[in-house]
Amino acid sequence: MAVCTKWCEFKFYTRLLKGTYQNSRTVSSSARVTSCAHGEPERKHKKYTNTVALPRTDFPLRLDSRKRIDRDNYVHEKCEFSTLYDWQRKHVQGPEFILHDGPPFANGKPHIGHAINKILKDIIIRQKLLQGYQIHYVPGWDCHGLPIELKALVGETNLSAVTIRKKAEQFAREAIADQKEAFRSWGVMADWDKCYFTFDKQYVKNLLRQFHRLYEMDLVYRDVKPVFWSPSSRTALAEAELEYNPAHCSMAITVRLLMQRVPDAICSFIPPHIASVFALIWTTTPWTLPVNQAVCFNPDLSYSLVSIDGHSGEMYIVASELVEMLQQKLCRRVEIVTTFPGSSLGGARYIHPCRSEQVQPFLPAAHVTTTKGTGLVHSAPAHGPEDYLVALEHSIRIECFVDEAGCYTEDAGPALQGLSVLSEGNEAVMTLMSENILHSEQLVHSYPYDWRTKQPVILRACCQWFIDTNAIKQKAIEALKTVKIFPEHGGSAKSGGGLLAQLERRPYWCISRQRVWGVPLPVFYHKTSGTPILTESLINHLCYLLDEHGRDFWWTLPLDRLVPEEVLSEHAVSLDELEKGQDILDIWFDSGFSWSSVLNGQKVADLYLEGLDQFNGWFQSSLMTSVALRGQAPYRAVFVHGFAVDAEGRKMSKSQGNVVDPLDITHGGQDKKSEPAYGIDTLRWWVACHATEHSNIPVSRNVLEASAEAVHKIRIVLRFLLGTLHDLPSDVDVNSEENLYILDRYLLHLLLDFNQNVSQCYENYQIKRVCTMLINFITNEVSALYCHLTKDRCAPI
């Protein structure tokens, strides 16, 4: 219908076109319009060249690399980009639009991901400003954590806590300065004079107070649980601090465990000459067998007693559904002797695989399935969340024989003590158990790695602080139902389903870290009982010390200065009975409370805009903390963008040598012929055109050339329009109907339609569609139609 309407309008225009030009000389002499719409009034005794419309402007069509850089700097200063934010805060009276900035890590130079994120935010808030909104956009930086600490300490060891903190702070400040300069050069409008930093005193004090609030609400607690542990970093990690390596190789083994008490249901089927009955287990972590504490079975499954190759002295227990798979794996004949329900395994016992003097139980568990393995699961509660829950249910004391470095402790025995569980320790366990390993194979599978050291992690039980996600989760899910997720068409990865799925399967949130560059976890412990000491008066005192002695006070002041007499009296303890906590808060806890600090704890952001990885990071941590303390989501909408990839679709990494520096895009590389300076406009157009539709954002020479060509097309039209308007008198009312021909009115109609469509796209954050519509409108309706047909409108002189 829209196409038909435009065609009818255009036919109507063409019928009138000839008459319009014929009557163009009869326009009132008072209409002194020299634009494309009208020619100049008649002048006598002038040169012939004055009768031709020759646009005049100093707006350049093309710029070489050096001039482009200078021009970008000139435009940035001349247009007073740096003052626009303050101006609109003072003069725009419309409703406030809050885009809350997710703080990037202050851990290095600005990269292409920064450009994608900051430019998208700038596009959105500038459009909102044009709509009459007053913009609230305060940039921030995440200044703590292992990523910064590791980079600050390259090549240095055995440093004191205070020295580490000083070096990390200096590194963070330098990174912030570099990133801030780049962000401003890209034309990003923001409150650059009031940025927030997670190491600021006010920010840290707010964190200490919010942690205490959660503690008083019983939403944080201390417990021994298996957590992701990085031996390479020697600290606990949150799920958001993991990267999964799909090419990780593990040794998978099928192990037999000698039964000490056989279920009564199968005793009658065991011939008298059978000397031994074994339970078969399968594991990809042989190193956990020394801390085996049970074998789990599913009471709803069916199990079989089988013989292998007709061996006269041995029989084995395995899930009935997996008998055929076992036969294929062993390449041996497996025969079923009898079948029995899984519930019959209750009360069965077996001999520990590494300590023959210990007898362990069979325990029922719902997490046991027949998708792989044998249907019997080796349980090490110190090294698995499901195993841990089973141990809690049956009051089993958790044993952990692995230290902070990922090595066996002396409890594992002299043959294993000091060996790394991920390397030689794993091999040593298989050597010790070689007689009972029926099958082994290399298994390539996805495995969690430390996001910074790129080394594999383990699950390890240790005493940590946790947020009680189970108490918050359902409220968070309900709050999420009120939040709009953009883009709406991106599937589960880019919709509310992505965030919801991450939220639903999160078991608990470990918020303590065993490092020093961060906010101290403000707790003291009773040396004997381990009882934590945490009160409001203590927090108030610590905030006072922070103001008086700086952010290192926790590491520089003695215990008698840190703990006030009021706290000692309140708990009836002496200083000698207390010890200071050594942990810091998780950086996701740091940044997850940015809404509380930057938005004063009351406002709700209209928009959070970050990359896909923040479904499991900042989006989620902000949601959990906000729901916990004020019962609502911290945002009304979430916009998710993808990540930059090279021409082959590969993720950018330094190891592959395919990283593109945004500075090389704007300023050019060393060889300006092969790596020309495209300028800020091309960088911004590339982001607008490619960053909002797909998970992978391509950046290559061809893509950048296409973006540069699009910008060039726009410049051609703008240059013509500016040049034609160079001598337009200021007193001419260009909107007066007597100054508008039918072609002018037709273009205004198209412009109105274009503006409405673009506004709708902006409302749904469909930035790529805006780019497509814009380039089509400028090159077709404005250039090919309007400019082309109005070039000869000048009246003869």
TrEMBL record:
One of its GO terms (molecular function) is aminoacyl-tRNA deacylase activity. GO terms for cellular component: mitochondrion. It comes from the Eukaryota. Belongs to the class-I aminoacyl-tRNA synthetase family. InterPro entries: aa-tRNA-synth_I_CS, aa-tRNA-synth_Ia, Ile-tRNA-ligase, Ile-tRNA_ligase, M/V/L/I-tRNA-synth_anticd-bd, Rossmann-like_a/b/a_fold, tRNAsynth_Ia_anticodon-bd, Val/Leu/Ile-tRNA-synth_edit. Keywords: Aminoacyl-tRNA synthetase, ATP-binding, Ligase, Nucleotide-binding, Protein biosynthesis. This is isoleucine--tRNA ligase. Gene3D superfamilies: 1.10.730.20, HUPs, Ile-tRNA synthetase CP2 domain-like, Valyl/Leucyl/Isoleucyl-tRNA synthetase, editing domain. Residues 744-794 form the Methionyl/Valyl/Leucyl/Isoleucyl-tRNA synthetase anticodon-binding domain. Residues 90-696 form the Aminoacyl-tRNA synthetase class Ia domain. It is an enzyme of class 6 (ligase). Its EC number is 6.1.1.5. GO terms for biological process: isoleucyl-tRNA aminoacylation; mitochondrial translation.
